[in-house]
Amino acid sequence: METMIDSRMMMTDFLTALFDKLDVAGVAVMSKLPSGEKTAFTLFTGKDDIKECVPFFPAMPANAARAVSKFTRQAVPSKTVAVFLRPCELRAFTELIKIKQASFDNLLILSYDCSGVFPFQEINLSDETKLNAYRDAVSTGKNCEGIRPVCAACTRFTPQGEDIAISFVGRSTDQPLVFSFPSEKGLAAAEQLGLDVSNTVAASSAVESLAQERRSAEEELTAEVDASLSDTQGLVNVFDRCVSCHACSYVCPICYCKNCYFDSQTFEYFPESYFIRMQAKGALRFPVDRVLFHLGRLSHMGVSCVACGMCEDVCPVNIPVSQIFKTAGSKAQALFDYIPGENYDEPLPLLAYAEQELEEFED
Amino acid sequence: MDEKKEFTPSIIYGLCSWCGTGGSETAGAMHLQYADNIRPFRVPCTGAIDPVYILRALIEGADGFAVSGCHPGDCHFDSGNYRARRRIAVLKSLLDTFGLDSERVLLRWVGHGEGKRFADTVNEFNDYIKEMKKNPLAERRDT
User: Fold this and answer.
1) Which end of chain B is more exposed for a tag (fewer CB within 10 A), N or C?
2) What ipTM score was computed for the predicted complex, to two decimals?
3) Is B96 a domain residue?
4) Does residue B117 sit at the A interface (CB-CB below 8 Å)?
C-alpha cells in the first residue's frame, strides 16, 4: 500500500491548486445543480464555481466513465484534465479503454475509497438526516442504511489504477484531505502541487472493518440471488415485470454500442413470425423477448460487468438487475480468472483465446 | 402432447461452412443414418454464432442446441473456433446461474471428413436430450 500523506488542504483548496499549480484545462467532478437539490457530473473549466463541487456526494446520477469516455474517445484532450471517478467508475473506464472507447492520456485520475451511494432518485442535497447518517457511517467504516444493495455488497471499494487516491473511509470531511500517489503521474502532480510527502498518516482501521462487512454482505447477496434464480420459474419471476424499455443497457458504461443489437432490425420480426410464435406456445406475451434481452445482454457484457449498479438505479419496475448481473457476471468472469477493471493491458476475455483451455465445455 | 407417443426433441444444429457442414456432407455420401429431427443450419464459422441465437432457440422451445465446427487448429479463419469455445463457456455458465440446463448446449468439433463422427454426434445428443425430457421453457408463454 502506498504511503498516505496529510495534504493540509481542504477540497476547495485542492481544486483551486489543480488550476493554479497544475494548470489543468478542467476538472470533471460531481457538482450541485442550480436547482439546489440534485447533482450531476460536470466539467469545470475555471475555478469560479468550484465551491459547487461535491465529489463525495453519495449519488451516482450516471456512471462518470461514460462521460469521460465521450471526451477522450477519439481525440486526447490537448491539456491535462483532472477527473474524479468512483472506484466502480474507474473500473468501467478501464474496461472502456480496452475496447478503445476511452483514453487516459492527458487525464489526471482522482479516486477515493467509496462508501457506496444511495439510489440517485432517493437522495437530495437537502436530505440532512440521510447525509448525516452517511457521514457517520463513513467515519466509522460501516455500511450506511439505505445505500444501494450492490454498493453495500461491493468488496472492490478501493480504487485501482488512479493517479491520486483520496482516503475517504474512516475520515471526516471537515478535515484536510489525505492523499496517496500510486502512479508516476500522481507523484509528479504531488510535486507540482508542492505537497510535503513527509507528513505521513496511518491507514484507517475503518477500511478493514468496512471490507469485512462488505464481504459478508456480498456472500449474502450472492446466496439470495442464486436462490431466487434456482429454476425456470425463478427466472421467469425475476424478469416478469420487465417492460423492455432497455434503460439498463442505455446507462450501462460497458454497453457502449451506438446501435444496440437488441434494438436492431434483428428483433423487428415479420408479422408471420409473431403468428408462428403465437401458435407454437398458444399465446404470445408482449413485450416479447424479455428474458432473451437480459440473458443475451449478459452474454455480451457480463464478463466486463463492474457492478456499478446504474442499471438497477434506472429500472422503472425495480428489477434487481445489478444484483443479478453482479452475481452472474462474476461467475462468468471466474472462467477466465478475469477481474474487470483491474488492468487496462489485459484483453477482454471474449476478444482473446488460448489454444488449450476450457476443454470441459466441449462434448 | 400424447403421452403414448415417444418424445421427439427439437434440436438445432449450428454447423460451420467449412468443417461442420463438410461432416454432414460426408455422412450423406457414406449413406449414414442419423436422427431426422435435427434442424441443421449453416454459419460461416462457429465464431459467428452469437450466444443470443442459442438463447433464443432455447427460450422459444428448442430442446437442445448443438454446435460443430473445425477442430482446434483447423479453423478456416484461424481462431473462430477458439472464440466460439469462450462464448459457449460463458453461455453455459450463464445457463447454470439461471437454473437452466447447460447440458442442452453441446459443442463438439467435427472435421470435414468425419461423417461417422457427425452421425454419432447427432444420435448421441438426440438420445441424451430424450432422456432429459422437454425443455421447461418450451411450455412457458411468459418469457
Assistant:
1) N
2) 0.93
3) yes
4) no
